[in-house]
Amino acid sequence: MPGTDARGPEQPMLATLSDRRTFDADMLFERKLDGVRALAVRDGGPVRLLSRTGRDLGPTYPEVVAALAAQPVRDFTVDGEITAVRGGRSDFALLQQRMQLTRAEDVRASPVTVRYYLFDLLRLDGRDTTALPLRSRKSLLRRALEFRAPLHYTTHRVGRDGRELLAAACARGWEGLIAKRADGRYRRGRSPDWLKLKCAADQELVIGGFTEPAGSRVGFGALLVGHYQDGRLRYAGKVGTGYDTPTLHALRARLEQLEQERPPFADRVREPGAHWARPELVAQIAFTEWTRAGRLRHPRYLGLREDKRPTEVVRERSTP
């Protein structure tokens, strides 16, 4: 194995959204999971479970840390996705119930069962594996760790016609597929070697304000969201669906702590009586498409994301 690096990468490798559907034979297709990205690091001491921003996830998912600590190998860095599964599908809304918990007693009382799907190996026994081909890293990963709940190995398929594979994935209710170059190395940050093939449109957006509720609605009416472009927060529209009553109350309380007088958006937002907020919260939003004016069509709130910095949120654009 080439090189040595006990620290692991500063950030995980990220996939690029793509409309491409035809590939050469040297591609692997994995299930796209809707959860929280997590790197697990063990260098002879305690296991550290880290978000993509470096936040410690251990207190929220102690069963994952315990399963990794029980592994016979004492030195590794692995990459994967923490999910909650309902009806055979990864469910981000369900995972939200665990994402906010840090107190041990609250975590123990939570009915939400989580899984940690591992799909890459970055270091093993003090040796950096990131320069190895993906197929080799996955083979090493499968042999190095013992996969028992909540740890799961992410299987893959090989094929040229992504349309057929994606159609099958969507029919099963999956989020989509991740197409990965089988001979590719692990590279920090976003890379065209990993491509996101989605069944439906969704992405992270920054919350910059909210409207007052109307009628029998409680909490707030809609979130005002946007994304960054050239260092400025561009307005993307308002999101008025996808909330239950506890979420409406909880989000209103958090946003009131972030209220400010001036709108954070670079664009003019025509929402009389709107409340503006410091752009510190990131939400996952589903929608049907972007309009020509750069607004979301039929947006729906899925949940908050604690694993991404607001300034990293940009509009995802498909590559050919």
Automatic annotation (TrEMBL):
Q: Which InterPro entries match?
A: ATP-dep_DNA_ligase, DNA_ligase_ATP-dep_C, DNA_ligase_ATP-dep_cent, DNA_ligase_ATP-dep_CS, LigD_ligase_dom, NA-bd_OB-fold
Q: Which keywords belong to this entry?
A: Ligase
State whether keyword Ribosomal protein applies. Answer: no
A molecular function (GO) held by this record is: DNA ligase (ATP) activity
Domain (ATP-dependent DNA ligase family profile): give its ranges. Answer: 107-198
Stated EC number for the protein is: 6.5.1.1
One GO BP on record is: DNA repair
Q: Which Pfam families match?
A: DNA_ligase_A_C (PF04679), DNA_ligase_A_M (PF01068)
Please write the reaction equations for the catalytic activity of this protein: ATP + (deoxyribonucleotide)n-3'-hydroxyl + 5'-phospho-(deoxyribonucleotide)m = (deoxyribonucleotide)n+m + AMP + diphosphate
Per the similarity annotation, which family is this?
A: Belongs to the ATP-dependent DNA ligase family.
- What is this protein's name? DNA ligase (ATP)
